[in-house]
Amino acid sequence: MKRFEKDLLLDSFISHLRVERGLSENTIRAYSGDLGRLLSFLEKKRLSPASVTRENLETYVATIKRSLSPRSTARNLSAVRMFFRFLVTEGIIDQSPARFLDTPKLPRRLPDILSPKEVDLLLSQPDPRDPLGLRDKAMLELLYATGLRVSELVGLQVHQANLEAGYVRTMGKGSKERMVPMGTKAAESLREYLKDGRGKLLKGKRSRKLFLNSRGKPLSRQGLWKIIKKYGRMAGIRKEIRPHLLRHSFASHLLEGGADLRAVQLMLGHADITTTQIYTHVTREHLRRIHERHHPRP
Asked: Among 6, 137, 149, 198, which one carries the catalytic annotation?
């Protein structure tokens, strides 16, 4: 396959992911890298995508397994399957050679969560006496109150937060809109930020985005992650601070408190309830540890 043909095919597929499938930019970047790896493999074998067989793909999978983790291999295979389905849709091939490929079994990895006490410690760290502290307090409270993804939070616009009704409207994966209650504490923190913090960060500029950096520009995902890690260190939390730590804690604490699994699924924006069910495993593991710690005959 010639270089320009390879680039053209990759561009067409990425456009399909963005426009037709509505995938997030992070997923598109990951799939783009995965597909680039496949096309380079085919180039070395002097194969075109239209002539690929299942046996060719099995050789490819055996090759990437040597350098990729099972999780990365599974994601790579997901991109490969999607790519060949795209070729079928475009009429380039009749059947996908990837349809019978085996996906590596992944160990179920339970997400890390904070205890309610650790959440309180984390949320108490921002200093509300300056605009950045007001912003950070509002962001942390909103993350824990709603379970929003980091990308969803930094993408919020001012009009998407309804303080009177007490909910935020967000656009999740696959461009699916959902409304999530925010609770009184998060609403109060957000009201304080809008009243005394956001205007000072704007410094006369204009922006539709709800959360801004110190220069009055939209806050990035990386910027928010650094903020959360900073407050985690300040709170003395020894667990690894990951971007979705408050999201995982939100879901687990709701289920521990007796919330309905379907309701949690809707608030998280999961398309499949099996994705939400992992938090029931977290809850059971939490109860097991409590039993072992406090029962006289564990």
From this structure: 149
